[in-house]
Amino acid sequence: MSNQHEHYYVPAQSIWPIVGAVALFLIALGAGSTVGGMFGGNGPWVLVTGVGILLIMLFGWFRDVIHESMSGLYSAQMDRSFRQGMSWFIFSEVMFFAAFFGALFYARMIAVPWLGGAGNNAMTHAVLWPDFIAMWPLTTTPDGTETQGMGPMGLPLINTLILLTSSVTVHIAHVAIEKGNRQRLTLFLLLTVLLGALFVYFQAEEYIHAYQEMNLKLDSGIYGNTFYLLTGFHGLHVTMGTLILFIVWLRVVKGHFTTENHFAFQAGAWYWHFVDVVWLGLFVFVYIL
Questions:
Q1: Residue-range domains of the chain with CATH
Q2: Distance from chain centroid for Cα 226
Q3: How many CB atoms lie within 10 A of CB 91?
Q4: CB–CB of 115/125 below 8 Å?
Q5: CB–CB of 216/147 below 8 Å?
C-alpha cells in the first residue's frame, strides 16, 4: 500500500520581500532624519516615500496570497504552516513589548531611585544631579524644562473602552463566521475596523494635546521617551491591525471564506486580541501607576 502525501504548495519567487525591506529602510532613515534634522529637512519626504512603498508592497503581496488561496493551491499542511508562522510572529511582538516594558521598569524602579540617592548613592545624587527629586512621572527634564504627566482619565480611558469593545465585536464576528452568519460577520467586523480607526484618531488627538497643552514631547526626558515609545509603537500595531481587518472585511464582502476555511480572519483576530491585551498593560503601567 503506497503512502499518501499532502501536496505542499511552494510559491514562485517574489519581489515583495525585497520591496518591503527597502520600504522599512526608508521609513527608519526618514524617521531618524526627521527627528535628527538631517538631509536638509528632507527627512519627512524620505519617511513618506518609505510608507508609500510599504503600502504598495502590502497591496501586491496580499493580492498574490489571496489569489493563491482562492485558486485552491493551499493544502492542510500549508494551513498549519500559516498558523505556526502567525504564532511565532505574535510571540516576536510580545518580546518587543517585553523589552519596552523592561525599559520602563528599569527607569522607574532602578534609574530614578539611583539618581535620587537611594541606598548608598547619596554621593552620586550630590554629584550628578543635586536638585533631582526621585518621583514618577519626571516632570522636570535635565535642562530644567517643566512638563506634565499624562493621567488615565479622558482620552486614555476612552481609548481603553474602545479597544475593549472592539475585542468583543471581533469575537462576535469570529463566532458568526464559524456559524456561517455572513450578515452578522460583515456588520461586526466593520464595527471592529471603525473602532480601530477611532482609537488611532483619539490617540492623535492625545498627542496633539500633550505637545501643545502639557509640553510633553518626545525629548521630555526619560518619561517622554518611554511614553511615546510604548504608546506610539502600540498605536502602530493598532493601525496595522485595523488595515489587516479592513482587508479581511473587503474579502468577506466579496464572498471569500467558508466556515471551515478562514485562517486570514483568524490571524487578524489573534493579532487584534494581542493588541488589546498589550493596551491594558500600557494603560495600567504607563497611565495609572
A1: 1-74 (1.10.287.70), 79-288 (1.20.120.80)
A2: 15
A3: 10
A4: yes
A5: yes
The grid cell for 37 is 534634522
d(CA 142, CA 75): 59
Angstrom distance (rounded) from CA 104 to CA 286: 8
d(CA 241, CA 234): 10
Which DSSP state fits 259? S
As a whole number of Å, the CA-based R_g of the chain is 23
What proportion of the chain, given as a percentage, has pLDDT over 90? 42
Number of residues written out for the chain: 289
Name the nearest CA neighbour of 23 among 48, 60, 59: 48
The predicted structure's pLDDT at residue 8: 63
Instruction: Name the phi and psi angles at 263, rounded to 5.
Output: -65, -30
Q: What whole-number distance in Å separates Cα of residue 27 and Cα of residue 41?
A: 15
Residue ranges, the chain, pLDDT below 50:
1-5
DSSP per residue, 54-106? HHHHHHHHHHHHHHHHHTT---HHHHHHHHHHHHHHHHHHHHHHHHHHHHHHH
pLDDT in tens, 75-104: 777 788 888 989 999 999 999 899 999 988
Encoded amino acid at 56, one letter: I
Residue type, 106: Y
Query: How far is it, in rounded angstroms, from Cα 108 to Cα 221?
Result: 13
**Calpha distance 148→146 (Å, rounded):** 7
pLDDT digits (tens, 9 = 90+) for 200-227: 999 999 999 888 888 888 777 788 888 8
